[in-house]
Amino acid sequence: MSPIPAINLASLARRHRARVLALAGEERLMVATSPPNVVYCSGYRSMGYDTDPAQRMAAVFTNDEWILVGPTADLWAAQEASGHPVAQYGLRYFAYRTFFFDDAEAREATATRVISFATYEEALAAAIAALAGARRALAIEGPPPATLPADLAVLPPENTAALFRRARMIKDADEIALLRYATRETENALAAALAQARAGVSELDLAAEISAWMIRAGIRPGFIAVTSGPRAAFADAHAAPRRLTPGDLLRIDIGGSLQGYWSDTARSAVVGEPSAEICGVDTAIVAGQRAALALVGPGVRSDALFHATVEAVRAAGLPHYRRHHVGHGLGLDSHEYPTLGPAEPVALEPGMVINVETPYYRPGWGGLMYEDTLVITEDGTDRLTTLDAGLLILPA
């Protein structure tokens, strides 16, 4: 395993906040509240997002200052993510909910600037009031707190959500480095599992190998869809105790995250020699994906890419093939803007990171899938995935 990229997440988040404000085009107070956008603007991803469905955090920021709003339990983990002692970096943490640390000495040593509140709503309202100053516009993703400074107008939440979406759509070199590492090690995990796959091995065995590899590589396992036989037709399903038998299809679609940045890749195999029907389906969906990979690049519209991909699958042997999309953006969400579908066309731009896929699911028969990750560059693409597409034949 190669070393995890040494990215300064605090510096990355500072650039992200500046990018959001530059896209806004005017002086305003910004508030990120969705988990991916809080990570984007703070550099900190709370484990609470995994353990507590009600977890709420916010990053409140202007051109000059910012405040992180979060549970008291996250205080010191957030301080670590800042990369410097809190006082030196200038992080202000507005904490809510009761949690006890024996941290008097730690607070004194770092001069941690913490203010505590009973509820998230109180902490958020106080953070907004602390940074509002003379500003008259508040851009927040969702509903604002009930109490706001006088004369502070709330901009339409849908416009704010679109602003964050636009900012996150283009990745910089540090983000691409994280995505590249996550993709490479996810592929390594997939290759290790396929090397063990054979008749008698269970889906759970393969999922365990994938998860263990990811964890050793510093990646948080996300979705580990290992499905075989008729279960390979399940679009998204957890691995089961089912053991591979001769003739089974094996479809693996997996992803995990590194510092919040996701990987997503898929490959397919068959136990023993494939039937003519399996070969025909595989040939068709591989042809479709190859058509997409040949076409994708800067300036290509997402709807044009979708139609060309679907038509290539149909022409190669699946005349009734249908899809709602043939790929999606990748970043702090595993499915991120843009969607490569027939509606809401988007012209691809340098710096976008996208996945291209051509899945096929037939209940009672099985499914096949190949998925690859690419960075859109100024003159083409930089492919992050390296495994060949095409059916792998496993020992029976």
From TrEMBL:
The keyword Protease applies. This is Xaa-Pro aminopeptidase. Residues 178-378 form the Peptidase M24 domain. SUPFAM superfamilies: Creatinase/aminopeptidase (SSF55920). Keywords: Aminopeptidase, Hydrolase, Protease. One of its GO terms (molecular function) is aminopeptidase activity. Pfam families: Peptidase_M24. It comes from Ancylobacter amanitiformis. It comes from the Bacteria. Coiled coil: none annotated.
